[in-house]
Write a structure and sequence with these properties.
- The complex is a heterodimer.
- Chain A is α/β, with parallel strands linked by helices.
- Chain A contains 10 helices and 12 strands.
- Chain A is about 30% helix and about 25% strand.
- Chain A has an 8-stranded mixed sheet with strand order 6-7-8-3-9-10-12-11, with helices on both faces. Chain A has a 4-stranded antiparallel sheet with strand order 2-1-4-5.
- Chain A starts with 7 loop residues before the first strand and ends in an 11-residue tail after the last strand.
- The model of chain A has no long low-confidence stretch (mean pLDDT about 90).
- Chain B is of the alpha/beta class.
- Chain B is about 35% helix and about 25% strand.
- In chain B, helix 3 packs across helix 4 and helix 3 runs parallel beside helix 6.
- Chain B starts with a strand and ends in a 5-residue tail after the last strand.
- The chains are: A alpha/beta, B alpha/beta.
- The interface between A and B is large, with 45 and 42 residues.
């Protein structure tokens, strides 16, 4: 265990998917650093590569065609990419776990939910304490009457309760890092508030580090201390939440914030980003945002911008900031 | 009001047996609302609140169990022949799933021409009208899009086609059921801007059905909040968001994250316990009482009265303040 370094360190990660249309650069050189106990948001629209980043950290892909081609991933000082498949399998759940948008898909419909949580524990630590640990985990995620819920089948639970059961499965072995991929996109807003509350509590009570993948900037503002904005496989801006929302540096972040509506103000939508995210198999030359960028310069069409430093923890990959900060 | 719901109720059979129906899903219970020309009324609520069923009844796609929809002051149940067809042309729908609502085997031109034919546009003029509609919804040059199939379009482009098809019959009211919920942020803004421009240019009225309060705040002039099949609060958008009367509205607003870290930390959250009860057996008294943070004894027994706060804002609650 590395006492001083970040819990999660990702450096120059590249994950490619081989398709009939060519190589899709789903993750194209991203770097991340998450201190122990922190909550970071990975924000982007569909096709930005945020989910593939999560899969890459887990070394678990929905398709055989995806593979990590370059980079480094360290969890608590341990190089995940050098682990054998068996070692990585043991790390999953134990050191790092992931939850997804649709809880139903990840639950076995013919097994009581408690047993599924217990099984997740037993795979690493045996069955002796599994039941007790599962009941504990069900209580920790705020399910009422955990002993009773243990025996219930997934179809007997509401959507919000199923998502909690999935979170219980993920945290029953007390992973150091929890990756939550759009954990509340499929639930209603009052249930979303309950789930976000559970995630916050897990951080407080277990000291868990959270990587929250979402398209919702409101959720990021509520939960995360730092934000990484992804666009077409790259992180285009990283900053502490307050700095990002107060003074976004990248034109894409500025566009996202301008398109984000709030219950707090009746804001007419004034600026609209035209176009859509590019095809990751046919990326534009230069900066990949340049075809949609309102501040595009000649240079952006040719040269890919490095990350420039705007503040101690504020990085922006955009030529507009070349003057202010060294790369 | 050009389109009005008067005391609508809709019940669906649930658990049918040989001897009859055992129970009913009370999807909509006594809903009244109205959409004016050139105006936007938002219908908000969580899943199962009955907002989609209400929209479908207003569009004439579903018959109410009781109550009636009035179009230009005339009850739909009394419309026949020509009048019914005129109503169907004048009230159009746009749905959330832009893909499922377009026939995958028809080109954009064919899809629009069917709608134009229903509007009585002569066969020879349909291609030109279709092209004009595409320009109106921002798909240019139209020649490029006319020959495409739905799967060759992006989600945002497909939703533009859905809007264009709705416009083909020159409607007075469009019922938009979660029209931007499936779209990415930047595309969502594009569609909302388009819908607002069309309203200014054509004077069309919207019934905007959505679960997203932030979107509603920006597009609607009035808001109706539904819970378990009933409207629990209605009023001008500014009033409902600024001074909500019903504890459910207050909880919804409080649960909606605000994209502002400083504000987010200062806000007090009301976290409702439990889930929405089953509409098969709604709770007695006030339907919201099992989850209500301020419920009293009376709420468990008696259905609450309608409280008028002035400013056109009303709520159904014993303790609306």
């Amino acid at each position: 265990m590395n006492g001083t370094g970040p819990l999660l360190l990702v450096e120059d990660l590249h994950t490619h998917i081989l398709t009939t249309r060519g190589v899709v650069r789903a993750v194209d050189g991203i770097s991340l650093s998450l201190p122990q106990g922190s909550a970071a948001g990975l924000v982007g629209e569909s096709g930005s590569g945020k989910t593939m980043t999560g899969f890459s950290i887990l070394r678990l892909f929905p398709t055989d065609a995806a593979r990590i081609v370059r980079g480094r991933i360290e969890l608590a000082g341990r190089d995940l990419l050098s682990l054998t498949d068996e070692e990585m399998r043991r790390a999953r759940g134990g050191d790092v776990a992931m939850i997804f948008q649709d809880p139903t898909t990840y639950l076995n419909p013919v097994m009581p939910v408690g047993q599924q949580v217990a099984e997740a524990y037993a795979m690493r630590h045996g069955w002796t304490q599994a039941r007790q640990k599962a009941v504990e985990a069900l209580g920790l995620v705020g399910l009422p009457d955990p002993g009773e819920t243990y025996r219930r089948f997934p179809h007997e639970l509401s959507g919000g309760m199923r998502q909690r059961a999935v979170i219980a499965m993920a945290i029953v072995c007390r992973p150091a890092l929890l990756i939550a991929d759009e954990p509340t996109t499929a639930v209603d807003v009052t249930i979303q508030a309950q789930i976000l509350d559970v995630l916050q509590r897990l951080r407080r009570e277990l000291g868990m580090t959270l990587l929250l993948i979402t398209h919702d900037l409101g959720i990021v503002a509520e939960v995360c201390e730092t934000v990484h904005v992804m666009y077409a496989g790259r992180i285009v801006e990283s900053a502490p939440s307050e700095a990002l929302f107060a003074s976004p540096g990248h034109p894409y972040t500025q566009g996202l914030l301008a398109a984000t509506l709030s219950i707090d103000e009746a804001r007419p939508i004034t600026r609209v980003m035209e176009g859509a995210v590019p095809d990751l198999a046919r990326l534009p030359r230069g900066c990949r945002f340049h075809p949609r960028c309102p501040a595009v310069m000649d240079r952006c069409r040719i040269e890919d911008p490095p990350a420039f430093r705007l503040g101690a923890h504020h990085l922006v990959a955009c030529w507009l900031h070349e003057e202010q900060g060294a790369p | 009001m050009i389109l009005e719901a008067r005391d609508l109720t809709k019940r669906f059979p649930w658990g049918r047996t040989f001897t009859g129906t055992r129970a009913w899903v009370r999807a909509v219970e006594g809903v009244s609302l109205g959409v004016a020309e050139g105006d936007t009324l938002a219908l908000v609520g969580e899943s199962g609140s009955g907002k989609t069923t209400t929209g479908r009844i207003l569009a004439g796609l579903e018959a109410p169990t009781s109550g009636d929809v009035h179009y230009r002051g005339r009850a739909l149940s009394a419309l026949t022949g020509q009048d019914w067809r005129e109503f169907r042309r004048s009230v159009q729908m746009v749905f959330q799933d832009s893909q499922a609502s377009l026939n995958p085997r028809k080109t954009v031109a064919q899809i629009l021409e069917v709608a134009l034919a229903a509007h009585g546009v002569a066969p020879g003029a349909r291609r030109d009208s279709a092209a004009r509609l595409l320009v109106e919804v921002g798909l240019e040059p139209p020649a490029v899009f006319l020959g495409r199939f739905p799967h060759q379009l992006s989600g945002g482009q497909r939703q533009r086609i859905n809007v264009a098809r709705a416009l083909a019959t020159d409607p007075k009211v469009i019922i938009a059921d979660e029209p931007v919920s499936a779209l990415d942020l930047s595309v969502r803004a594009q569609i909302l801007v388009l819908m607002q421009r069309l309203q200014r240019q054509r004077g069309v009225g919207y019934l905007f059905i959505s679960h997203d309060l932030a979107v509603v705040r920006s597009v609607a002039r009035r808001v109706a909040v539904m819970y378990l099949g009933r409207i629990v609060e209605e009023g001008p958008t500014e009033a409902v968001f600024g001074r909500p009367l019903h504890p459910y509205t207050e909880a919804l607003l409080s649960a909606t994250p605000v994209p502002n870290p400083r504000l987010a930390r200062m806000r007090e959250r009301i976290i409702l316990q439990g889930d929405v009860p089953s509409p098969v057996a709604p709770p007695p008294g006030c339907p919201f009482h099992p989850r209500c943070p301020i419920a009293q004894e009376v709420c468990r027994r008696e259905f609450p009265p309608l409280v008028d706060a002035g400013r056109g804002q009303v709520a159904v609650c014993h303790f609306a303040h």
